[in-house]
Amino acid sequence: MSATTGERDDTQPHRTKGPLVYRQSIWTRVTHWVWVICLFFLLFSGLQIFNAHPTLYIGQESGFEYDNSVLSMHAERRPEGGYAGYTTVLGNRIDTSGVFGYSGTEANPEFRGFPSWLTIPSYRDLATGRVVHFFFAWILVGVLFVWAVASFFNGHLRRDIVPKGADLKALPADAAEHARFRFRHHKGYNALQKLAYAFIFFIVFPAIILTGLSMSPGMNTAWPWLIEVFGGRQTARTIHFTAMLVLVLFFIVHIVMVVLAGPINELRSMITGWYRVDPGKEDRS
Ligand code: HEM
């Protein structure tokens, strides 16, 4: 605050806090919040669709003698009475009663993969789950397209997302800083941020969208090669589910990082565009 004018002066070098800089364009901010909403509905409606057949497979073969499942959720009667829910991951069977395979109460048991509080709608309704899923899937595709075009033309893609040689060199030091919970606040993203976001934009989003498309019968007619690229419908479904798990993991780490780096400053930048940098770090380096 200036003593004479009463106005805030964020450029004073003696301040321990640096100035506010305009970090996130309107395109970055609007697209970010639209895909957050889309991913919320996609996740929970996707789990509703999964529940219609709560087993994932790899490969094209099938048969009574042949087990190519990699994940499965089901309920079984306990010898002592009542039911238990089991999740089998790569042959390892885990008792997940109350959450996966078997949930609800004794008076109102539910035999379903994911419990009602993890699906949209909460009750069993594949048709509505599919309508919700496809609606938000197309909005997600549209908003990612808008993000890609805007980021290409405004330089965000080149400046902040595509990692460069210098970012790879800076990676060990950057990882060490993060491990010590020391976060620097520069105008540009650090090496770990660039790599994490590039991984999401160039690998996870394309994988989840293309495997989703490859499971559509309409697309199988239009682009029959797509399903072959992913090793058939069942493998595509497993890759789609795995990409979802990666997004959930990314989301958890992302939120932890936002909280550790200073949630008010981080959220302000993603809502208004303005970000408070460390003194002398107003440029993108
Ligand atoms: C599944 C949900 C989410 C995904 C996939 C996601 C993904 C991303 C991506 C890819 C960026 C970089 C965007 C760009 O530079 O163009 C970003 C930035 C950011 N996100 Fe999210 N986000 C999610 C949810 C959230 C939520 C719920 C919050 C707030 C609590 C949040 C807060 C931020 C902030 C503050 C940034 C600024 C960039 C930074 O300083 O690293 N995100 N997010």
Detailed description of the structure:
The chain is α+β, with helices and mostly antiparallel strands and 285 residues long. The protein has two domains: 20-52 and 123-276, Up-down Bundle (Fumarate Reductase Cytochrome B subunit); 56-113, no CATH class. It is 52% helix and 12% strand. It contains nine helices and eight strands. Strands 2-3-4-5 form a four-stranded antiparallel beta sheet. A two-stranded antiparallel ribbon has the order 1-8. A hairpin with a 4-residue loop joins strand 6 (103-104) and strand 7 (109-110). Helix 1 (26-51) runs antiparallel to helix 2 (126-153), helix 5 packs antiparallel against helix 8 and helix 8 (233-261) crosses helix 9 (263-271). Bound molecules: protoporphyrin IX containing FE. Residues 28, 32, 36, 39, 160, 193, 197, 200, 247, 251, 254-255, 258, 266-267, 269-270 line the site of protoporphyrin IX containing FE.
Q: What order do the SSEs take from the amino end to the carboxyl end, as H and E?
A: EHEEEEEEHHHHHHHHE
Structural category: alpha+beta
Number of helices: 9
> Could you name the CATH topology of the largest domain?
Fumarate Reductase Cytochrome B subunit
Summed up, the domain count is: 2
Q: Please state how the strands of the largest beta sheet are arranged side by side.
A: 2-3-4-5
Q: Give the overall silhouette.
A: globular
Strand percentage lies at 5-15%
Quick overview:
The protein is α+β, with helices and mostly antiparallel strands and 285 residues long. The protein is 52% helix and 12% strand.
